[in-house]
Amino acid sequence: MSEPLLAIENVSAYYGAAQALEDVSFEIAGGSTSIVGRNGMGKTTLCNAIMAIPPARVTGSIRFRGEELVGRPSYKIANQGIGYVPQGRRLFPSLSVDEHLRMISSRTGSRRWTVERAYELFPQLQERKRNGGAQLSGGEQQMLAIARALLTNPTLLIMDEPSEGLAPAIIEHLVETFQKLEQEGLSILLIEQNLGVATSIAERQLVMVAGSIFAETTAAELTHDPELQRRFLGVEPLAERA
């Protein structure tokens, strides 16, 4: 059997003596996978563990295309083909949109994703290319964070709560963009509390509870299971929303 794109095996993470992840294991062969769960369940810690972002101490194995990531610095992990869109976007207020993108482009060289292609994907960014990161709307900031990650030319794109704080129309536009990227062959690991977004982007759904993967289900099953939505996600069931 061929090696999965991403293989996470018995991964635990600690902040001092406090354990945030406990024996997390799953694999991604390709396509899109969503991880859903309430706040404080360890979803962002899992992203940080994959990308080697401190301060958590990580044990277990995280392999990307068969290569072990645990113990490697973040920049080497990004260079291997994993793009990351963090929660909160983390843009530089003093840099313009164009400077954000050209800074990444100058490091990655001429490959599949270019600044020009990023502007084609998000025309709004080209219109605001001279504006600083802090001068953008929430939706524009998220577009810039996604474009910045794409310029690393990833095979796998990890996104942590990309719909957070955005208007419904912007969320709909981003969902269409993610679906288009997947059709082009990009694999996506989506961390989301917005169940509508999670189920629109990925058929495969992993439910995280208390730092562990509690269940694996599908978008169709999760959408039509109000009890699972209430008990483990703490959300109003989709079927009951007006």
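(ticket continues) Second input and output from the same batch:
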Amino acid sequence: MRSTEDLNRLDYELIMAEHSVEKGLSHFNLRPFGKNPLRRIFNFINLELKYEHPETHFAFSTAINLLKQYKAIYEAKNWTSKYTYKNVSKFLIKYEKIPEQKTGAYVLTKEELKNDYNIDYKKFIKSRHSL
């Protein structure tokens, strides 16, 4: 994946950087974080701009929406004076028209998961892995 700078490689790198921020947002005892992963996301988004219609690319649009969620969480926690919040806010000004989509981490109860997805809960949990 790292051999050439093409759209597929950029998408891969962007998704990996997004995952780092999503994982950070999933902590129950959330604290301000993200300087390096956010810098990587900004960089990869800027690199994707040289391709036609980047807003239609999955990795690009999910990255913008993740940044919007990051900003909203910082606002809810009253962390608006933080350096990372200010950088994300400034960066997002250019991308206000990107359609919203769900990103990040969500807390679901066991019952919600069973009802919404009609799955074998134990089998599902045993199948989950993180690297």
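Agent notes: Helices lie at 7-25, 35-48, 58-76, 83-92, 110-117, 121-127. The chain has one domain: 7-104. Closing as not reproducible unless the customer responds.
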